[in-house]
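Posting this for the archive.
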Amino acid sequence: MRKLLALAILLSIVVLPAAAQRAIHPDSTVTTKHQVTIKGQRVPYTAITGTQPVWDENGKTIAGLFYTYYERSDVKDRSTRPLVISFNGGPGSASVWMHIAYTGPRLLNIDDEGYPVQPYGFRENPESILDVADIVFVNPVNTGYSRMAEGVDKDKLKEKFFGVQADVKYLAEWINTFVTRKSRWASPKYLIGESYGTTRVAGLAHELQNSQWMYLNGVILVSPTELGIERNGPVDAALRLPYFAATAWYHQKLPQDLQQKDLTDLLPEVEEFTINELIPAIARGGFLEEAHKKQIAAKMARYAGISEQSILQHNLDVPPSFFWKELLRDQGYTVGRLDSRYKGLDSQEAGVRPDFNAELTSWLHSFTPAINMYLRDELKYKTDVKYNMFGPVHPWNSNNNNTGENLRQAMAQNPYLHVLFQAGYYDGATDYFNAKYSMWQLDPSGRLKDRLSYKGYRSGHMMYLRKEDLVKANEDIREFIRISTPKKGQPAMY
């Protein structure tokens, strides 16, 4: 047993002894060897988990970022082997979600729809993209085990980490160091981000090109935010309706003629109404003719599964929080914000918003035990520092969020760069139709649209929690990598 353990665990820098386990060394690694069966093929791989420093402009270590890097071990030439750099969102969220539920080689124990099961734990992920790409999961400062360095003035350093622009700047530097240390400059490179992570990777695509001179092949936006693309007023109010319709369809709250349609047959009809009728109607505000207003409200009620009266009481601008409370009010349930398939129980049926996010509570229920067990027991990274599923990163400076425009510029400057949008129909926080809108508005010229693609899934914010969508979404990433990898010798030119 000791010999096997010695072969499996290679310590580049030994993690601190027990007496000092409440602090994370900013530069440490633990290496283990594993195998996973993906699509029926046995894939051997090396897992390196540890920390890599963040330095200030004077070369002083100011933080250590915790990461887990998976490298397929039977690959001899990595110059053509894609590297995927993965971030989650928040801001303030660890990389745990996509790490052990989407693209990584291990999958947490949940049922086929994503609900917690006991005993807690993890198993092989037969859908992981590790067969076609190496992956590193990165935790920004104060997420996971990432922390500011001991002895620094943490209050003064917050502005270096906690903001749209600061986040992108220091992470680009960190990626440069990581790629250099792992000898991956020749590899095709991809960024994947979920939720706020899409803001992060959209900004990073531009920052990496312009400050680190590192050019990407692809950016994958999972449940994307607004990316700094404006949509105030009538557009903001109207774009929610297709999501309302998807949720109402799932909970069987639509009229029979709509309910009997398949979801993907229904939604284009709702989208057309939203663009062609609802936005112009809301744009007229208080001067919209009363008869027309009632006509619009009636059609909205038909699609949203809530009453015409409640829609009129909101002047056609129904807040998502009210919808989550209202849709199943007659059954005594609320629906989840990030995934409206999930139901919640409030203290009373009255009110205008749910007491809690039913889906997030469910996810924390299953993810938290699994990641703590996995890192310690399988990857052998032992520490008494708390793994922050969500860490303190506020106040977050959201000024100058031009990440959508940054991404457009990166695409324009780099003919190799492709972008994939992935969104779940039941996500009410970063809804699927807003994701489509962002894609439409990303490049008003339309000159880049052949490198922009969109995929929708029958689940929520973390679409991969549903087994059927885990399979589909990972296949979509594989195909995206295939089409965005140029043929040998193909020049990056227009």
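The CA atoms of residues 99 and 161 lie 22 Å apart. The chain is about 35% helix and 20% strand.
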